[in-house]
Amino acid sequence: MLGAKNLSHSFDYDLFDNINIELNQKKSTAILGVSGSGKSTLLHILSSFLKPKSGEVFFEGKNIYSLNSKELVELRKNEFGIIFQSHYLFRGFSARENLEVASIMSGEPIDESLADKFGVAHVLSQPISTLSGGQQQRISIVRVLTKKPRVIFADEPTGNLDKDSAKQVMSTIFEYINTNCASLLCVTHDENLAHSCDFVYRLEKNALITVK
Question: What is the domain range of residue 82?
Answer without folding.
Answer: 2-87+149-210
